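We keep the chain:
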Amino acid sequence: MVVEGRSGAGKTTLAAALGRDLGAPVLRMDDLYPGWDGLAAASARLARDVLPGWRRGRPVRARRWDWALGRWSVDVADDVVVPACPLLVVEGVGAGVLDAAAAPDVLVWVEAPDDVRRRRALVRDGDAYAPHWDRWAAQEAEHLAACDPRSRADVVVRTA
């Protein structure tokens, strides 16, 4: 199951609730993005390195991005570990990739008005996100134009 939408739409909150209610782990794309310019790279990594192994019933380990240091974590204890399990919730922009091997069984699109999204994101991440908002939004727009996850969504959730 994928929970996708633009930054600040409410994906993380919804994915956490779904994971809790369904007894499923939640994989956050924030852990896979290689920095502020890494949306496309994280989508490709998810499709190539994470989901195929998980779909074959194997646990998957992936390096986690260290946002404070601006590099991949060097401590394997910080790795993202996706257990072998029947259901996985993947949350984040770029999670609804088109690759046939990684296409979600269920795609949930979460949306909110732009001003609400921006306010939420800046309250959540504060000064760490503010200087990157426009460049991240440009990557989101590029991803949406290329993949159009909203049009493929099984469910659309409006959070404001």
